[in-house]
Design brief:
mainly alpha
Length: about 90
Amino acid sequence: MVLDEILPEAQSLSRLDKIRLVQVLAEELERDEKGLIEPGRSYPICSPDRAFSTAAAMMQALDAPRVPGLHADAIQVTPDFDAPLSDDFWSGQS
């Protein structure tokens, strides 16, 4: 089964079932990774909910005038940028 087949089903789940699905998948990943997540331990989930000062800072940055050439040559695009990604990439093998 591929993700495209199960994604519509997962999206139609209730909020509680989606949370349970995340928990089941995290436990599955933990078994695969051996010790990445400790069983029975709670972990914080970061959320932008009620991050009003952060939202204000982002709006201020978006409203600021752009400076041409500010970060010139900061990003280098490789020649294979548009090349298709390998199956190993999509399966997590690379």
